[in-house]
Amino acid sequence: MAHPDPRPVSVHSAPRLAGRIRVPGDKSISHRALMLSALAVGESQVEGLLEGEDVLATAAAMRAMGATIVRGDDAIWRINGVGVGGLLQPQAALEMGNSGTSTRLLMGLVASHPITATFTGDASLSTRPMNRVIDPLSTMGAEFTASPGGRLPLMVRGLCPAVPITYRLPVASAQVKSALLLAGLNTPGITRVIEPVPTRDHSERMLAGFGAEISVEESDEGRIISLTGEAELRPQSIVVPGDPSSAAFWMVAASIVPGSDVVIENVGLNPTRAGLVTVLRLMGADIVEQDPRVVGGEPVADLRVRHAALSGIEVPHDVAPSMIDEYPVLFVAAAFASGRTIARGADELRVKESDRIAVMKAALEANGVPCEEHEDGLTIEGTGGDPIPGGGTVASRLDHRIAMSMAVAGLHAAQPIAIDDASPVATSFPSFFDLLTQLGGRVTWA
Ligand code: S3P
Q1: 155, 118 Cβ separation under 8 angstroms
Q2: What enzyme class is recorded for this protein (predicted)?
Q3: Ligand 1 mutation pick, 169, 207, 298, 324, max ligand atoms within 8 A of CB
Q4: Nearest residue to 37 (alpha-carbon basis) of 59, 57, 54
Q5: Using CA atoms, how far apart are residues 120 and 108, in angstroms rounded to an integer?
Q6: Is residue 422 domain-shared with residue 289, that is, in the same domain?
Q7: Of 54, 122, 302, 325, which residue is the catalytic one?
Q8: Is there a single domain that holds both residue 206 and residue 262?
Q9: Which residue of 13, 239, 350, 399 could cross-link 354, Cys pair, CB 3.0 to 4.6 Å?
Q10: Residue 1 forms part of a structural domain
Q11: Is the peptide bond before 292 cis (omega within 30 degrees of 0)?
């Protein structure tokens, strides 16, 4: 799986990391802000939007379906929506690039509009399973023509009016939940999603913020989310908090590089996203929340992270959904802990931008870190704080989080770590390497 324009990079050991940095806007919230604004009637404004390739793919798709989306010189995005039910037939295939969130959520939107859309993506996205959204959206009445195994390229023919359903999520997936809620927006009656295990709740929060009738009830079966369809969304002003999944790299980097003292400003700490903070603290990390506040309806704080001796632990399974994107960098933290870290119960890692269990095992072993692979995770032997050997080359496999996690590992390695292609970093965190150098790290571009 190759990028058309690969960017090899080597990351060198850093003496210490220090400084204050700000991470870009939350990717999940940015996608949702564009989609819901595009469905409101009137102008919404979004500040702090993540300007990464994945989110730009969502913006392009919403434009192709009729919304006006403009970025001002003040970096505020102004979106004039078409209204729920008002999406237009796109004239060309919707190119989703690397973005699973854009694809699955937009499939939901299209499913209940009287339009047909084709979704295409890069080599990574074209291997990812879409039946998890195709199945329930078909029950609502949409029709799909997909590539073998329910993959991209695929075509969705929406049904209007669609049929409201009650659906119990068979996998803990915020993307599947959100696809159904977005389909439910233009569906008469009540669409219900039951989630046995809580996943990120940005869709629920933002739908309520835009004026949709949505309720969340805790029951023996889990969370029951009920959305009343044929909603009218009111335009909003949204401030997107910093992405905890991007902050994660610096939390681990500052924890493993001796002498480090880093403040990461404006980090979203929604409890459905903050699992890594909990797990790093269980390992002994020194993370202090400063100036806790609420930004755009989400809890936010500045995080001061100082180097600390980490200990290997057995990672509790129930935190997995609240840190599902952070496992690659948790594996890196484990490589520097004393003793063994067992991180299991995360089989969803197999179907992310890459198979993150197999790809991280290969990446760590190529750099001298012993790992054992399980169907649902890894067991990793740590150095007890010493540098890892390094000196290997990492295949990033079109997966931004593999590239960034192994770049962090390179900051405390005896030999530089080479990454065959850092270009995927642009999907979620275009300023990653600038921040790495700003904090005192060193990279060389081949
Ligand atoms: C996301 C949900 C998660 C996560 C992804 C973003 C979202 O995916 O891994 O990066 O914005 O809803 P799953 O729904 O597949 O768990």
Answers
A1: yes
A2: transferase
A3: 324
A4: 59
A5: 15
A6: yes
A7: 325
A8: no
A9: 399
A10: no
A11: no
- Name the token pair of 165: 């359903």
* 290 CB-contact burial (10 Å; exposed 0-12 / middle 13-18 / buried 19+): exposed
Looking at the fold, whether 280 and 372 belong to one and the same domain comes out as yes
For the CA of 200, the closest atom of ligand 1 is 12
Catalytic-residue membership of 325:
yes
| CATH number, domain with residue 201 | 3.65.10.10
The boundaries of the domain holding residue 170 are 27-239
Query: Do 289 and 147 sit in the same domain of this protein?
Result: no
Single-letter residue type at 75: A
Residue 4 lies in a domain: no
Same domain, 40 and 94: yes
Which residue's CA is minimally distant from atom 9 of ligand 1? 325
Q: Is the pTM of this model over 0.90?
A: yes
Query: Ligand 1: which atom is nearest the Cα of residue 172?
Result: 16
Judge if 247 and 174 occupy the same domain: no
47-72, pLDDT tens digit by residue?
A: 999 999 999 999 999 999 999 999 99
Distance CA 98, CA 121 (A): 6
At 355-407, the pLDDT tens digits run 999 999 999 999 999 999 999 999 999 999 999 999 999 999 999 999 999 99
C-beta separation of 431 from 51 below 8 A? no
Domain boundary residue, one of 198, 216, 239: 239
Residues 200 and 229 occupy one common structural domain: yes
